[in-house]
């Protein structure tokens, strides 16, 4: 798998972005301000990563996704390792990520990569998303924020 910076987003990129975040207007807003990367495997786009500088010395992974058919093969972990190396090489001190409290697989993966929980934004998904989100048979309400020092 190789990772490239994306110059112009294509439909395949948007499909991946939307699999991680159903809010298209929010996506449009952060892809303009952030750095977008694609993961290529067998000459196909298999993953996406969007990094956004938020506070001084802090970079946030605002979107990460791998094509459904190719999940759980290590591509997501490779994208996270790439984000951490990019942050370190560019003198950021902290990398942050937010995920749903019901996103158990994602919470496992981020903690496996060394992220620690910092805080919980209660009712984030009720406030920001019009449609109810059900995940792992639970209504998604709270956002868990995690970070790692690089
Ligand atoms: N459920 C259960 N376990 C999961 C998981 C999930 N949804 N996602 C990852 N894992 C586990 C893998 O089984 C693997 O475990 P192991 O190390 O014990 O083998 C480990 O985490 C590493 O996973 P990896 O294969 O590197 O992740 P991936 O390529 O499947 O990508 C995501 C992870 C989250 C990017 C991918 O599942 C995805 O695109 N999901 C939809 C979009 C999304 O939710 N994005 C994140 C929004 S916060």
UniProtKB/TrEMBL annotation:
Domain N-acetyltransferase, first and last residues per copy: 1-136
InterPro entries linked to this entry: Acyl_CoA_acyltransferase, GNAT_dom, NAT_camello-type
One Pfam family recorded for the sequence: Acetyltransf_1
GO molecular function: N-acetyltransferase activity
Superkingdom, natural source: Bacteria
Key words of the record: Transferase
PROSITE patterns membership: GNAT
PANTHER family: GNAT FAMILY N-ACETYLTRANSFERASE, LD18367P
Full protein name: GNAT family N-acetyltransferase
Species the sequence originates in: Enterococcus ureasiticus
